[in-house]
Amino acid sequence: MTATSPRRMDDAARVGLAERADTPPEMLFFLANDPSIGVRAAIAANAAAPPLADRLLAGDAEPGVRRVLARKLASLAPLLDPGSTDRQRRTSWEAMRLLIEDEAVAVRSAVTELVAEQDGIPRPLILHLARDVAMAVAEPVLRGSPVLEEEDLLDLIADPPVPDTLGAIARRPNLPERPADAIVARDDSAAITALLGNATARLREATLLVIARRCGEHQPWQNALVRRPALPAAVVEGLRGLLAEEALRVLAARRDLDGNALATLRPAAPAQEPEAEGGGVDEASFVAAARRGSLADCGRILAALSGLPAGVVTRALATRGAPVLVALCWKAGLSGRAATFAQLRLTGSAPDELLVLPGGEWVLSAKEMRSLVDELLVRA
Description:
Layout: H1 11-19, H2 25-31, H3 37-45, H4 51-57, H5 63-75, H6 87-100, H7 105-115, H8 123-130, H9 135-144, H10 150-158, H11 164-170, H12 177-186, H13 189-197, H14 205-214, H15 219-225, H16 233-238, H17 245-252, H18 259-263, H19 283-292, H20 295-306, H21 310-318, H22 322-331, H23 336-347, H24 366-379
């Protein structure tokens, strides 16, 4: 090497010196303070640069220099150890920590680009990136990092840094059942749409039934749900009367689903809804009225089927109380599916508040429901 002082070199010569692997560490550290951005960038890219030089450049005023350094340290991430007692390793980790907290998204995403799908990356690094508020940084990690465990995903779903965190996790390949359930429980429409569109996500039948019962209000859910592979027959049957025409056509055209379950959808396709006054008095008419949110028609049909006074039923429905509504459906001889649909449409109940279980079992006992109906008559 030349003994010429860097102060007497032009920029090109100093860049050349900064790029060399055999330049002494002391000289590389000296050049990390160079006024030329090109020289500092060369030091940032040089794997031979000492950790102290990297630590210095992690606070460089030029984002481009920090981005170059981020790519270099990210490529060495499996070797970093936050708990190391070695001074140089701790200095390298400190430089990395500054970079993943950098104000520039481009710097933070430079780290993500190289570590998102790698195994053996320090967990603190991955967990920090996963909680980034910028999806350009967090999403590749949330969707692809093998370091993230199921409990990590559940923690992120329970306390997402931003709403888009849920959607990114929902798109994760082979997402396990528990995180999938947790996403549905958060009731984030966009995240549930993304979850349904993820063909590899492991969704339990009970979870799909919860989504199916509410999909009448969410066209994107319908479009994704009817395209999911291997839909259980119970879920297909649960979609009766809830699908828009386009989604119904997609589902009916599938040849990989249970034929008997598909057959249950066809009677619901033609519009046989009563036009308020003078309409039908049966379960299909009741479901159609509930779909329209017509308390008057629902009350008329329930009164006719249950034998209760129309005024008593109408006043009961006006309270929008879920237990009373379900009890009236039971008294009228309607199915659990119809009662569930009515509860969702007319009372605004959340999925975990449904009073009919997925298999059609009533949560309230017959005695409890009879008592609720009797109280209506007493108060009348």
